[in-house]
């Protein structure tokens, strides 16, 4: 039976910035619109956290029963390592999705933004079929697209819309930036896993692009948020403070450009996630001041 520590590791806490960052960025854009409500933002954050933990357990389960994680380089996988029974990990995933659904319904009910139910359902289905089902889209190189949509556009714009009833171009810019950061985290993860994914038949975008192409793609993705920052500054100078977060990417960039492989790429995920979170916080502060 898996220990509490192993369950926490299986939830992959290093990915949590991917859930927190879009909500924080969305809060900044919401304040800029003069429509911020703290409890609605908190509920949006709970939905995002439940979804990302759920998708992590769902991936653990689906990859584990397929044998994809039999020779794992990265963090512990509960099913692949044999630390937990597949049914328990599946139950954990479904529980998290249930929490996300219930909290989301509460948020929709009190705000009256009923069409967001469809978006929430799409997020849960997207989380499951990433590696679940007969033809998981994560095995066809579409994982990055889904991350951009769900943890970029949907999470940021959903946070704004549920409170303000509309979105702004500032919110859209933040959504694109956070989506690119989230994609970069997944790209780094899949770069590390190219050798084992090829053997397992998991044709991720990294497998399609190859090692060199994936490294170039990562560098392009982490540049986009800073282009967005400069564009935001044309109308709102304060978001320029987010440029300082580029310093957090020095180590990841060295690892990517220096040819780091295997365990040497694990810190890239953490540092990219932290840079994303820091960028979101400072951009939100900048938009709020503006």
From TrEMBL:
Pathway: Quinol/quinone metabolism; menaquinone biosynthesis; menaquinol from 1,4-dihydroxy-2-naphthoate: step 1/2. It holds the Pfam family UbiA. The keyword Membrane applies. Gene3D superfamilies: UbiA prenyltransferase (1.10.357.140). It catalyses: an all-trans-polyprenyl diphosphate + 1,4-dihydroxy-2-naphthoate + H(+) = a 2-demethylmenaquinol + CO2 + diphosphate. The chain crosses the membrane at residues 38-58, 88-108, 114-130, 137-161, 167-188, 217-238, 272-289. InterPro entries: MenA, UbiA_prenyltransferase, UbiA_sf, UBIAD1. It is found in: Cell membrane; Membrane. Its EC number is 2.5.1.74. Its main location: membrane. It is an enzyme of class 2 (transferase). Conversion of 1,4-dihydroxy-2-naphthoate (DHNA) to demethylmenaquinone (DMK). This is 1,4-dihydroxy-2-naphthoate octaprenyltransferase. It comes from Amycolatopsis deserti.
